[in-house]
Design a protein that fits this description.
Layout lengths: L12 E4 L3 H16 L5 E4 L4 H10 L15 E4 L2 E5 H9 L3 H5 L19
Parallel strand pairs: 1-2
Antiparallel strand pairs: 1-3, 3-4
Protein name: SH3 domain-binding glutamic acid-rich-like protein 1
Keywords: Cell membrane, Cytoplasm, Membrane, SH3-binding
Family: Belongs to the SH3BGR family.
Length: 120
């Protein structure tokens, strides 16, 4: 029986790895989502092989590193790939995170429309 990715139950699955080297990036994404009341779910790829496999298979091939596997944090809206931390950071700097995530911005928020291919 195929393993089911339980991280696809909420709107924004957020795949992470408990590693000091990338913990700051992960915390940056988590903090932003929490402060802006964006529902998300953390998906541990170190403790859950199904999460690790799903994340690696669903990062678009053209955006994978030349060698090795894509490292977290990787951000998806349900099963649609949004981007890596670097893309998230760039979208945040441009006030375009809601567009990056494929979400409608709440009324009154600073928002920029973006070309969806810009942030990947």
């Amino acid at each position: 029986m195929a393993e089911v990715n339980t991280c696809l139950t909420n709107n924004i699955p957020f795949f992470y790895l408990p590693c000091a080297q990338i913990k700051k990036q992960q915390q940056d994404v988590i903090s932003f989502m929490a402060v802006n009341k964006i529902e998300f779910e953390e998906c541990d790829i170190a403790a859950n092989e199904a999460n690790r496999k799903w994340m690696r298979e669903n990062v678009p091939e053209e955006l994978r590193p030349a060698t090795g596997n894509p490292l977290p944090p990787q951000i998806f809206n349900e099963s649609k790939y949004c981007g890596s931390y670097e893309a998230f950071f760039e979208a945040r700097e441009d006030n375009a995170v809601y567009a990056f995530l494929g979400l409608t911005a709440p009324p009154g928020s600073k928002v920029k429309l973006l070309n969806t291919n810009t942030y990947r």
